[in-house]
Write a structure and sequence with these properties.
Two copies of one chain form a homodimer. With 448 residues, chain A is of the alpha/beta class. Chain A contains eleven helices and 27 strands. In chain A, 30% of the residues lie in helices and 24% in strands. In chain A, helix 1 (37-45) packs parallel to helix 9 and helix 4 runs antiparallel to helix 5.
Amino acid sequence: MKPDTAPQTSITTSQHRIEPAGNKDRRPRVVIIGGGFAGLEAAKGLGKLPVDVTVVDHNNFHLFQPMLYQVATAGLASTAISAPIREVLHRQHNVEVMRAEVVDVDTQRQIVLLKHARPLHYDYLIVATGASTNYFGHPEWQTLAPSMKSLNDALKIRSMLLEAFEQAEFENNDEIRRKLLTFVLVGAGPTGVELAGSIAELTHKTLLRDFHNINPHQVRIVLVDALPRILPSFPEPLAQRAAKRLRQLGVEIRTGQQVTDVKDDGIVIGGEFFLTNHIIWTAGVLASKAGTWLGAETDKSGRVKVQPNLAIPAHANVFVIGDTACIMQDGKPLPGVAPVALQSGKYVARVIAQQLAGQTEPAPFHYTDKGTMAIVGRSFALVHSGPLQITGFLGWLMWVVLHILYLIGFRNRVAAILQYAWNYLTYQRSARIILVDNPRPLNTHEDT
Amino acid sequence: MKPDTAPQTSITTSQHRIEPAGNKDRRPRVVIIGGGFAGLEAAKGLGKLPVDVTVVDHNNFHLFQPMLYQVATAGLASTAISAPIREVLHRQHNVEVMRAEVVDVDTQRQIVLLKHARPLHYDYLIVATGASTNYFGHPEWQTLAPSMKSLNDALKIRSMLLEAFEQAEFENNDEIRRKLLTFVLVGAGPTGVELAGSIAELTHKTLLRDFHNINPHQVRIVLVDALPRILPSFPEPLAQRAAKRLRQLGVEIRTGQQVTDVKDDGIVIGGEFFLTNHIIWTAGVLASKAGTWLGAETDKSGRVKVQPNLAIPAHANVFVIGDTACIMQDGKPLPGVAPVALQSGKYVARVIAQQLAGQTEPAPFHYTDKGTMAIVGRSFALVHSGPLQITGFLGWLMWVVLHILYLIGFRNRVAAILQYAWNYLTYQRSARIILVDNPRPLNTHEDT
């Protein structure tokens, strides 16, 4: 194991990254930016083709984003909803995984520019960089009203929620205690609704059992949206039932009300000031920088406008998929949801396969909407699939089964099922751990 | 749920914190600083006594420290070895839990001074603040050679290990690649040995399967100690077998060699320079600030010298237990291990019970050494218990059963068993997640 005993030649250096121009024998290289649902599905679809695939992501893990709110509310461990991208793809021998940050794309030279690493050459490029949260022209609100897009976001929200109760437990000033126990969620789409329901459950079932000095009536969970109702993507009767359920759980709903200001100590909703320092922003979607990289036309949310085969107009070998793309169908853009990401990833792999085989292109991408689901607290979910509209416990069972089956990697599936079952039976939250930024043993001799 | 509908009187304000001097009816208050093994065991022992107990910790969770190296090497999720202190104690109605940082103790006025909270009055004080790592007069080495004492420490080490492989995979410069793949562990006690074995397993069994460009011969794991042999607390034959096993796993052992310098790009061991930026420090123990707070006499490691009943000489109502105390037995101090912490916590609860009952004090504290264990990679452990000396698979089975039984809280036990079994069967590491400090969606419009 001494370095000088290592054979100097046995290391496989990655020669492919900038290809010598005249190399005719090499296989085409597909670079996929992003290891989310769309990117991984594309990588899997390319598994058996005569191509070399590089998946680039700034994280080393795939995140099961639809269950992120469970991490934020201490229901699941962060590792239960994430899996190393290398592990997910390790059976596919034509795929390599690279943890790096993309800074730009040069579509003329066909290279992806990386931070702290040499550029990556591509023959085909698949951009699946996802989306972030839209503060609608108020980027300064981001620090005051954090969003929930990454694992770290969720862990910070978890700490924020738990810390609020720890402080409120020993706070004698009534006004400060009310401020500590007021939680405002901006955005009443599925994420906002699921988070609100889960915070309500966490609060009323789990935390209040362990915090003896907190008056349940002082806990206030407010769900705000500028639109006239919650869950605009669901049929109105389902949304109404969800709203009723949320109110039963103790959530105040403020729809049709605009957020006009966010401050250090509160938020202004429809002209009314709410004293709080616990605001979570789930409203609005802003696509990644891909449009800028590619010099492509984007819609208002920054999503890249794509052709029917998901390539961009100027470059037939550059595809944009998932939340990053503005895919028009029946005259309107498809929503940024996991099924669209999965189906577009699969489709693009097929397009590349057919191009390589010299076949004509497949039919334009067509999204098949199998339905939408949203969970509202423990054992209550909405399911909308074609003519089917289900609410309540049956919907919840369908949600649980489907979401857990989706979880990538068998191990995570087992861990998630067990944690979920355990939480359900006991009202415990297994992950109520406040990870402090400054990890320091209790008051040690720092200066010795 | 509107604040103005909340009854103003129903909140139980915590009046006890500074007691009115003349209140004769109140029950004695025991304040326990620290929610580790010692502190929790004391709190449990006081459960049915006519006292009010306050457990103060700067974390909201208890940490099962002996398995911390499993988190650092991606074997277990952080939530599998930790449990909210409130959850552990929530059945004990005379115990309240407070997340706060202690800044000092006033033994004259019998109060504990807290950061950002009012002082806590006590009738009995139990100090169980644990210990940190001793850099032997080189505090500047701490940032270059982090220690592994907290959950955050372990998560940082996990990211460091995984990141090294991510970078080495795409590094063409041979020297830089060797530097990235060199891991130096300072301190060959149980923590250093367990960590070295686990890093070797992680590297050779799990990571090298997923990283195709890394030459296994370039991975170097070095275990250093100034003492002449590893595991000085074990009998020599056992330590020899552990050393042999470590070498089989690919660990270089450098005993009898002093670390004389730690730099940005390497470490000097016995005069030789090792190029690396992956150094982990597990050598040496430094007790918490408790000695300073109490104005008590301490030993060289900062541990408070206690009387046979674990009280400090100047104050019969102040006890120091666990790693914070220097407890003499048979002419030498007891080691800072979990069983000493557990037994001393239990003992102190009994002393207080007997004092309250007006009985004579129990016999001086006597530690019963049931044995020591250390694990060396997968399915190999040392067990030393009285005349019994076991190594190998049988030892490992004993280790697994005992450690998992120790894990506080049924839920964690189940999760840990399953993760452990799954890892064992598959060589997978379930928690290979690099949590970046700067959680940001992939290249989003930061400026819009």
